[in-house]
């Protein structure tokens, strides 16, 4: 690859001295779980997000599940989720015993369409999970307005949106809780799995601390049926180092995104991301759309450009959830997106030369697709031309293109 899709080791190279010192500090301390690094990280990340509480857990999926359980969501309940998202959003709901109910995306932003929420609400609905997909903030004003009318919890899935702002405020304000993932490829990534929940609700925070540690805050006294989901001290120390660089890294991502938007916004057959005027995305992913997505990906791969598809199979059609309730065609918007989306390199450690290379390859590929389309259209038009009246019959026509 000339330009890989992601280089997860680049952050370590940039911050090696600080990260090594943080890791050695933990190793020498003898405290590896629920110690001072966790406490410090929780305090620092809560302050960064503008939240009262941060509770660190073992993964982003755990963050979603435990937050739902802290809200007493469980068996017999329904939770509204986006039809277009990573499967973890749905799996967390299923893990509580509740049922995920899918809602179609807005085709401009690819986030959950708030105008479709009320049609999905039933007497069993207990919560809504809007996902800030690709680092683009969802329309939280509209989602929260629906939730207030129906007395529902809102749990934001911000696994891809560390630092994103909605109307000038970091995501997470106004909802019951917000879940984050610190998977290594995230904007704020650990060197292994990790997650956290921020909340302004004291009761939810207290319950989360019980749930993540076997239902206990005092050793061998278990107040509820909890689980084991604790971010370890090494990961907390690494995240503390990286947190001080998060805004700078997000700014680099925004610079790359702006170049893509400016220099590729006129490409035929390729749709650029749409940003709402009130949104300040953090560009976890830069996702374009093309009706000939697979061909575009092949062309970029041949040019040495790494791409990925987020996500190639809609959750409702995955083997985990496929069935008579949601046959193909149930969510046409989500299915269309899965057939058309393609993610370009967008990491904060891309060089200007890398970005120039991606842009050149994308423009060349779009040009080839335009030429192919013209050729196919020309051949089709040739086949439709009738022979002259004096030709004496049907003339020979070109064979259909392969």
TrEMBL record:
Segments for region (Disordered): 370-402
GO MF: pyridoxal phosphate binding; transaminase activity
Keywords: Pyridoxal phosphate
Biased composition (Basic and acidic residues): 371-387
Active site: 186 (proton acceptor)
Example GO BP: polysaccharide biosynthetic process
Tree of life domain: Bacteria
N6-(pyridoxal phosphate)lysine, modified sites: 186
Family named by the database record: Belongs to the DegT/DnrJ/EryC1 family.
Name of the featured protein: Erythromycin biosynthesis sensory transduction protein eryC1
């Amino acid at each position: 690859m000339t330009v890989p899709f992601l280089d997860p080791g680049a952050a370590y190279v940039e911050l090696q001295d600080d990260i090594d010192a943080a890791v050695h500090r933990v190793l020498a301390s003898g405290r590896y779980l629920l110690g001072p690094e966790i406490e410090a990280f929780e305090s620092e990340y809560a302050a960064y997000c503008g939240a009262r509480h941060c509770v660190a857990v073992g993964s982003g999926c755990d963050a979603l599940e435990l937050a739902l359980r802290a809200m007493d969501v469980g068996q017999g309940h329904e939770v509204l989720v986006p039809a277009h998202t990573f499967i973890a959003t749905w799996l967390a709901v299923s893990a509580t015993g509740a049922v995920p109910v899918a809602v179609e995306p807005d085709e401009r932003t690819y986030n959950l369409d708030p105008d479709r929420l009320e049609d999905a609400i039933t007497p069993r609905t207990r919560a809504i999970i809007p996902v800030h997909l690709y680092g683009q903030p969802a329309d939280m004003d509209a989602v929260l307005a629906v939730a207030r009318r129906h007395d529902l919890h809102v749990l934001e899935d911000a696994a891809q949106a560390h630092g994103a702002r909605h109307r000038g405020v970091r995501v997470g304000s106004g909802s019951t809780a917000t879940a984050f993932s610190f998977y290594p490829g995230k904007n704020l990534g650990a060197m292994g799995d990790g997650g956290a929940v921020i909340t302004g609700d004291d009761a939810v925070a207290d319950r989360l601390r019980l749930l993540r540690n076997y239902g206990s805050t005092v050793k061998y006294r278990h107040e509820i049926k909890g689980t084991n989901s604790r971010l370890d001290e090494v990961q907390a120390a690494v995240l503390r180092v990286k947190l001080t660089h998060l805004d700078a890294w997000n700014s680099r991502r925004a610079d790359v995104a702006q170049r893509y938007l400016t220099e590729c916004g006129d490409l035929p057959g390729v749709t650029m991301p749409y940003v709402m005027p009130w949104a300040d995305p953090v560009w976890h992913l830069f996702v374009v759309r093309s009706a000939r997505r697979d061909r575009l990906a092949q062309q970029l791969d041949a040019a040495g450009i790494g791409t990925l598809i987020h996500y190639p199979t809609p959750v409702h059609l995955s083997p985990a959830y496929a069935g008579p309730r949601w046959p193909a065609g149930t969510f046409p918007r989500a299915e269309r997106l899965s057939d058309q989306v393609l993610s370009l390199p967008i990491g904060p450690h891309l060089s200007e030369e890398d970005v120039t290379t991606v842009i050149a390859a994308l423009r060349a590929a779009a040009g080839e697709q335009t030429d192919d389309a013209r050729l196919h259209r020309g051949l089709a038009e040739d086949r439709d031309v009738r022979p002259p009246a004096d030709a004496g019959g049907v003339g020979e026509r070109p064979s259909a293109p392969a």
